[in-house]
Specification:
about 675 residues, alpha+beta, Beta-galactosidase, Chain A, domain 5, TIM Barrel, ten-stranded antiparallel sheet, eight-stranded antiparallel sheet, about 35% strand
Length: about 675
Amino acid sequence: MHKLPIVAALLAAANPAANPALAATTASSPDGSITVSVDTDNDGHAKYAITRKGKLLIAPSTLGFILTDGLTMTRGWTITGAETGKSDSTWEQPWGERRFVRDHYNEITVHLKQSKDWGGRLMDVHFRLFDNGVGFRYEIPKQAAFSTMNIADEVTEFDIAPKGTAWWITGGEWNRYEQVYQKTPIEGVATAHTPITMRLDDGTHLSFHEAALVDYSAMWFKRAEGQKFRATLSPSSQGPRVTRALPFATPWRTIRIADNAAGLVENDLELNLNEPNKIGDVSWFKPQKYIGIWWGMIRGDWTWAEGPKHGATTERTKQYMDFAARHGFAGVLVEGWDKGWNGNWFGTGQDFSFTQATSDFDIKAVAAYGAKKHVQLIGHHETGGNIANYEAQLDDAMKLYASLGMHSVKTGYVADMGGIQAPCAADPAKICMEWHDGQRSVQHHLKVVETAAKYHITVDAHEPVKDTGLRRTYPNWVAREGARGMEYNAWGQFANGPDHEPTLVYTRMLSGPMDFTPGVLSLEGANHAPLASTLAKQLGLYLAIYSPIQMAADFIENLEAHPKELDFISKVPADWSESHLIAGEVGDYAIFARKDRNSADWYVGGVNDATARNVDLSFDFLDAGKSYIATIYKDGEGATYLTEARHRIAYETRTVKKGDKLSLWLAPGGGAAIRLAASK
């Protein structure tokens, strides 16, 4: 059977009863719409292909590895057997976009063996097929041929059959994931970070990513030719990009598949491919909103370094805690509180102390002051990319925070790509340079999260390795940056264009929560540089860009100068029981409806690109038989991000119920936010 053309095998798989011999190497999703087939060609290449609704989606694509110390694991394969299975269960998130997640799939594990001429290795490929996507990974069993696998690169291909459009950022560039997304034909992609999103010409939406990235290098998505892509792994200073003892499993390679943009967004594929919670009860973490001594440093008004403009002082932090207590914010983030910020710390970081405060910041007094006001001090650990220095202090740093009643830390790795300083594997006394998303960095981030969990501390990682759904396994890993955030708006006019956030929703946000830091109500960066945003859009960001920790990033004076907007920010939750994309298209606009996990209230809102548009919203998602008081924040007449009219905002209150409609005008660079309070 293995000499049959793989596409023919796929078509035959639609009727396995007609050809029982094919059933062992094909599997379909529970609803039968997606089928995967695995076969080998005349050269012994192992290949897989995917059809959806009877049409070829992924043409025959090669599987395997290149090694640094042996023949490639790409040729000489024979299929020796396969097992199939299925599962249908529901699990509960401790926090998230939705409370309950259905995990419904069929699966097949295909066993392969190389000929002796090609090394005689064993390799299993495990596929899980959902109605809205596919995940597959390599599982390398214990075997006589070798005990350690030194991987130069993967040869995992994705040969996309139909034509279409892609939204992507370049993999391996100096600024990591902090880039503006490009929109090109699929064949115009070079090497991309994942998630990479595509819309095929027939309207099918795809997203390629990975799940459960543990002790392995991140996958970049490299175009080989035409629309054929190949996985390539983030580099390592050690030669092999990945070194693993057998047995082990790689991360899952994932493909979300949907008919429309909403199907792409409302998809839990990567979460379902991660293991359940490993750290136990996390009720000590409550999703929350916070403010911070941060925007002033980003803009240049204050400094991280000690001196007359130092931002992180005891006096200023208490002032911010007073504001937080008045307006219902749970925490205050303070950056620059510790020693090591003087001089050049970018990409060096050897002077950072994570336990010693500067002379003008009394961390114990500040933490105690906040506790009296029920406001937590949120810690900050900037490493400058020096994980050798950080790991040496890690346990002591987390222990200090725990002793002060601090339950959250923002970590940072500010260095250019390839600038991570880590102890060398061969000689830990020496420093080797690694990549932000290489195997060594992946190991580091997990060590930080596990250490933090021991002390009941959550982690919000900036300049991180990308999210791959590990928040399911480690739910104290509450957020990451991993994209071009609000801070870029402090550095130049329209630094993030108006279509940036409506693109993030369908690209970066498919990987997990982002600490985007919305809420700059002044709409100004340094030197009065305007944001590509209306005032209503700043509120809409709280619905469009999900995180269980949401910042109000502006100076507290600017927040207080907008009492109606501040009232919305104070009330909008950071934890949801349901989330639905009710209107939107990739890169254009996105409007969500989200239900508060702790009340019967709903919230609706989102963001727009540079094109003014009218959107007709339906309240079909509301509970039947209930009335809701809708408090609406929307773009004012003539609002546009291009002029001072960006500040124009309109307010409206009305009563709505299930089935009602709302026609909403979105300004260029605009947005909207609605609170739907259930009538008592």
